[in-house]
Write a structure and sequence with these properties.
- The structure holds 2 protein chains of 2 kinds.
- Chain A is an all-beta fold.
- Chain A has no helices and 10 strands.
- In chain A, strands 2-3-4-8 form a 4-stranded antiparallel sheet, with no helix packed on it.
- In chain B, strands 3-2-1-7-19 form a 5-stranded parallel sheet. In chain B, strands 9-16-10-11-12 form a 5-stranded parallel sheet, with helices on one face.
- Chain B is an alpha/beta fold.
- Chain B is globular.
- The chains are: A mainly beta, B alpha/beta.
- Chains A and B meet through strand 2, strand 3, strand 5 and strand 6 of A and helix 11, helix 15, helix 16 and helix 17 of B.
- Bound molecules: siroheme, flavin-adenine dinucleotide, iron/sulfur cluster and FE2/S2 (inorganic) cluster (FES).
- Siroheme binds next to strand 33 of chain B.
Chain lengths: 126, 851
């Protein structure tokens, strides 16, 4: 089904190809792994792709990609499937709790392939 | 009325005393004569203040005023042992026979004695009558001062007895099986404050355990052992563990009994036999036995009036109580436990000062339904008067000193805690609305955090936000969410009329924006009824709630639970073996659910298809535990095996479950079928419950467990199989068409003007002329049903959803960790994780940089 993805090597540039745009369902999330980190990808209705950490900070479960995608006051959001807080897909900010946010990853779609910018090398060392 | 011989009254307690007094005053005694037979040596006395004589006063100080004319004969120290309904006579244990024109049973209650061996005997007293108090006085006098005593039961009487024993110089422990003191009168919070106050008075309190054994040496009491093994020394034991109606006379005479005992009477207090009445605690009136003196008096007045030719009726009694327990004032009135549908609770608790106050108000906050006051009952009189009526202003004015009222608003005080979980007050929410930070529930959640945890305060949050908006001159819309200006019902009609098929069409034609977690699953549910399609196909996939999207229930660690359908709870050994093997092979935690089926917990997303493949191969199908749809139709075993069964409840439950499986609805749907009136399937707790009769089925609608339990109401009786199904078909389709989002049938029915009668007119008499449509909708559902799991397994595109990581198909979430427990495994708790940091994925297809 998906294009098989080569594991990134340490010398590789800062961008990783993770899947094809077609692998993503419009307005639904999916998870990928980037440098061992679980990243939630979301394909918006206009085919932009947004990426957040997959970890729901309220429950600690890695499930944000399974939330419902929609908008709140025009801003694209995903709603955590566990306790239903909304997260802004552009900024990672939790719209139900100012004090909470999740990491955002940069994405790009190139010739139908979705790329995620790798987090700093710091993230490689557990 | 024809004077038909004397009025004979059995029992001379408080109700009997009042009755005789009324008969004298109405001239009935003079006309016909009255005979009252009491088993105790004392004439009618004030049982309510029994404890007053514990200190040594003379019992006669409790006697109620008598001095009746000679038309009243009082017989003391004799017990009536037989009633002959045909001959209209009663006989006493002294052999005296009395003919009656009218017979009034006023035999009261007796103390309930828990079935514990050797409990009764020397040193043990059951607390109910004057002689019991005298015996308690005697027992206390025959042990040294400071000797230990145990009171069995922490209700009203138990606390009175504890107070009396303390004043007699004993060291008292109260043992209560329930989780709090005064469980009948106060709620959990009030119980906690009360307990502290009682303990300050030097009385020990043990809750949550009962007396299991009694220790005696040579017959002399030495102690008790509790169910949890605790040993308590005791030289005196006072039993006050509840009361049982003394209905044995009526029972042996063949009178009809109430469901839970008590002699059943109608609203005139008539029993099932002509000219036989029952009043006070021995009667089951207006559906229950009443353990208080006020209703006993009311019944006495009703019978006196009837015997004088009047038409008085007994309906509901005031169960308000105010007591002073061991110096602690306690008062409660009305719906103490907030069981009225939609009831909201407002609580003020000052644990340091020992004051607890709770008001139960109606959904709109305008009517007072009940109150609990512990520690400070000053406002009791006023509150009691208001129960059931409109509140004059903000309720806090009634219980708190000087707080500004807010006319035209939901009458909730700013200080009241709205969200107990996040400690957000009503005032904080109002402030948020006033300064423009909040204009609806989501924005109010965002800026105050109210309602973001367990969600149970969201209905109250909604009300407060809306009323504050109105107060601020804004408007409240019935809008579903920011994307749709329609209610669920309006949206249903519009989608149906316009024949819309996808969420994009619906939001494009009827809404704005891209939808959210409220409107998307709702539209998905409407479309599932109006245009059935697989939930994972096309756009459907994006609109489903997480659970529907995975066709499984998400658990706290991100894994899922699996519930195969077991129609009617029936399962073959072969299927059971498959379930067992699947659970073992995938390491799933296995548990029987509360609804007669089996739940397998802890499946990873990628394991779901493999698990389901095996279940489907073995002939099982989705149980829709994840959907707002039919869950189970529970059943009892029915007439196939059970000696009391009158119909085949299992077969009917299977038929219903197979008919309605997969039906998407505003909220989940539950059902049950019982094979006879003993009701072992608990059908009356279900949205639609069916109970077998000799000649067919009785249908009950609108039952609910959950947050606000409600018994289902009788809709129709003695239906044939087909009639039953037709009624349920229409009921369900009407509900699906007109209910609000997340509104169970119980609250839906209560919101219908005309309630059950209205439903009958629509479903049975076709008053709206829509029955044909409803029938057709249901027929379409039945015809189009397919098992979602079998259909998913058959389609590679659908299966593609069950891959945990698109770029690492073999990897899985390393943060899911299991710990063994009781022979199975459970998710690791946070505290058990050693380094508290994210574990990186190191799946086979994705080697991570070297450590
Ligand atoms: C598994 C089970 C508990 C168990 O271990 O026994 C259960 C588990 C859950 N119940 Fe339940 N309920 C279970 C029987 C019940 C019952 C008893 C019954 O059905 O006989 C009730 C009360 C009866 C009723 O609904 O009227 C019940 C009343 C609730 C409620 C309150 C509903 C209400 O009307 O107030 C919720 C919350 C909700 O739905 O909003 C709830 C919600 C839940 C959720 C979905 C909570 C959640 O979001 O995670 C749980 C998910 C289970 C899962 O992952 O599989 N569960 N739940 C039971 C599954 C029964 C089954 O075979 O399908
Ligand atoms: C310690 C204590 C405190 C209480 N405090 C309160 C309170 O604060 N508020 C409140 O509302 N209620 C209170 N109650 C309850 C109240 O006393 C009863 O609700 C009330 O007495 C009921 O009246 P009754 O006539 O139905 O029954 P009872 O007063 O119990 O009278 C029944 C009488 O019938 C006699 N009898 C039974 N069978 C026969 C027979 N076969 N032949 C002849 N005689 C028979 C019994 O011996 C008894 O004397 C209290 C009760 C007790 C024990
Ligand atoms: S009662 Fe139901 S919702 Fe609450 S913990 Fe148990 S299963 Fe979960
Ligand atoms: S009480 Fe407010 S979220 Fe549960």
């Amino acid at each position: 089904m998906t294009a098989s993805v080569e594991a990134p090597r340490a010398t590789e540039p800062s961008r990783v190809a993770v899947c094809r745009l077609d692998d993503l369902v419009v307005e639904r999330g999916a998870a990928v792994v980037v440098d061992g980190r679980q990243v939630a990808l979301f394909r918006l209705h206009d085919d932009r792709v947004r990426a957040l950490s997959n970890r729901d900070p309220f429950s600690g479960a890695f499930v944000l990609c399974r939330g419902i995608v929609g908008d709140r006051a025009g801003r694209p959001v995903v709603v955590s499937p566990v306790y239903k807080q909304a997260f802004d897909l552009e900024t990672g900010r939790c719209l139900d709790d100012d004090a909470v946010g999740v990491p955002v990853y940069e994405t790009a779609v190139d010739h139908g392939v979705v790329h995620v910018t790798r987090p700093g090398t710091r993230a490689l060392r557990p | 009325m024809p004077a038909a011989g004397p009025v004979v009254v059995v029992g001379f307690g408080m109700a009997a005393h009042r009755l005789v007094q009324e008969l004298v005053e109405r001239g009935v005694a003079a006309g016909r004569g009255v005979v009252v037979v009491g088993e105790e040596e004392h004439p009618g006395y004030d049982r309510v203040h029994l404890t007053r004589i514990a200190g040594g006063s003379d019992p006669s100080s409790l006697y109620l005023p008598g001095g009746w004319p000679d038309d009243v004969e009082v017989v003391l120290g004799q017990r009536v042992v037989a009633v002959d309904l045909a001959a209209r006579t009663v006989r006493t244990d002294a052999g005296r026979e009395l003919g009656y024109g009218d017979l009034v049973l006023a035999t009261g209650s007796e103390g309930f004695v828990p079935p514990v061996a050797d409990l009764l005997g020397d040193g043990t007293v059951v607390y109910r009558r004057i002689d019991d108090v005298l015996a308690m006085r005697h027992a206390a006098a025959s042990v040294p001062a400071g000797a230990p005593a145990v009171v069995v039961g922490g209700g009203l009487l138990g606390l009175e007895a504890a107070g009396a024993l303390t004043s007699l110089g004993l060291r008292v422990t109260v043992v209560e099986v329930a989780d709090r003191l005064l469980a009948q009168q106060v709620d959990v919070g009030g119980g906690a404050v009360l307990r502290r106050l009682v303990e300050t008075g030097g009385i020990r309190v043990v809750t949550g355990s009962g007396v299991a054994q009694v220790r005696r040496e040579d017959g002399a009491l030495t102690g008790v052992v509790l169910a949890d093994g605790t040993e308590l020394a005791a030289r005196v034991v006072v039993v006050s563990a509840g009361i049982r109606p003394r209905d044995d006379l009526g029972r042996t005479a063949g009178l009809t009994m109430g469901e839970r005992g008590g002699i059943l009477v109608d609203d005139a207090c008539r029993t099932s036999a002509p000219r036989v009445w029952a009043i006070g605690e021995c009667a089951c009136a207006a559906g229950r036995c009443w353990g208080l003196v006020a209703p006993a008096y009311d019944m006495a007045v009703v019978v006196a009036d009837r015997l004088a030719g009047g038409t008085a009726v007994f309906t509901e009694a005031d169960t308000a109580t105010e007591l002073k327990m061991l110096g602690v004032p306690v008062a409660s009135a009305g719906d103490v436990h907030g069981t009225t549908p939609g009831a909201l609770e407002l609580v003020w608790a000052d644990h340091v000062g020992g004051v607890y106050k709770k008001l139960v108000v109606s959904e709109d906050g305008r009517r007072l339904l009940g109150a609990v006051l512990v520690g400070d009952t000053e406002s009791y009189g006023l509150l009691r008067a208001l129960v059931g009526g409109e509140l004059p202003g903000a309720p806090e004015q009634l219980v708190l000193p000087a707080v500004e009222g807010r006319a035209g608003d939901v009458a909730l005080p700013d200080a009241a805690l709205l969200c107990t979980y996040n400690a957000v007050s009503v005032g904080a929410v109002r402030d948020a609305v006033r300064c423009g930070d909040a204009c609806d529930v989501p924005s109010a959640k965002g800026c105050t955090r109210a309602g973001t945890t367990c969600g149970s305060c969201v209905p109250l949050l909604k009300k407060v936000v809306e009323s504050e908006l109105v107060a601020a001159g804004g408007t409240v819309s019935a809008a579903l969410c920011e994307h749709f200006a329609y209610s669920r019902q309006e949206l249903y009609s519009l989608v149906r009329l316009r024949g819309l098929r996808t969420f994009s069409q619906v939001v494009g034609e009827l809404g704005t924006g891209r939808g959210c977690d409220i409107c998307k699953p709702l539209v998905a549910s409407l479309l599932a009824t109006l245009a059935p399609a697989h939930p994972l196909d096309g756009e459907n996939a994006a609109t489903q709630d997480t659970n529907d999207w995975a066709l499984a229930n998400l658990q706290k660690d991100g894994t899922y639970s699996v519930v195969p359908r077991l129609p009617a709870g029936e399962v073959t050994p072969a299927k059971l073996a498959v379930i067992a093997q699947v659970a073992a092979d995938f390491g799933l935690y296995t548990k029987i659910t509360g609804a007669q089926r089996i739940d397998l917990f802890g499946a990873r997303l990628d394991q779901l298809p493999q698990i389901w493949q095996r279940l489907v191969d073995a002939g099982m199908e989705s149980g829709h535990a994840y959907g707002k749809s039919l869950r189970t139709v529970k059943s009892c075993v029915g007439d196939t095996w059970c000696r009391f069964g009158v119909q085949d409840s299992v077969a009917m439950a299977v038929r219903l479950e197979l008919r309605y499986r997969g039906l998407r609805s505003p909220h989940k749907l539950k059902s049950a079928v019982s094979g006879c009136a003993r009701e072992c399937a608990e059908a009356r707790g279900k949205d639609f419950g069916v109970i077998a009769t000799e000649s067919g089925w009785n249908l009950y609608l609108g039952g609910n467990g959950g947050f606000t339990p409600r018994h289902a109401d009788l809709f129709a009786t003695d239906l044939t199989d087909d009639e039953l199904i037709r009624c349920i078909d229409r009921f369900l389709m009407l509900y699906i068409r007109t209910a609000d989002r997340l509104q169970r049938t119980s609250t839906w029915i209560e919101s219908l003007e005309g309630g059950m009668d209205y439903l009958r007119s629509v479903i049975v008499d076709d008053a709206l002329g829509i029955c044909a449509e409803l029938d057709a909708d249901m027929a379409a559902h039945v015809a189009k049903y397919e098992d979602e799991w079998a259909a998913t397994l058959a389609d590679p595109e659908r299966l593609a959803r069950f891959v945990p990581f698109l770029n690492a198909p073999g990897a899985h979430d390393p943060n899911v960790v299991r710990v063994p427990e009781r022979g199975q495994s459970r998710p690791i708790r946070d505290a058990e994780r050693r380094p508290r940091r994210e574990v990186l994925v190191a799946g086979p297809a994705l080697p991570v940089g070297a450590p």
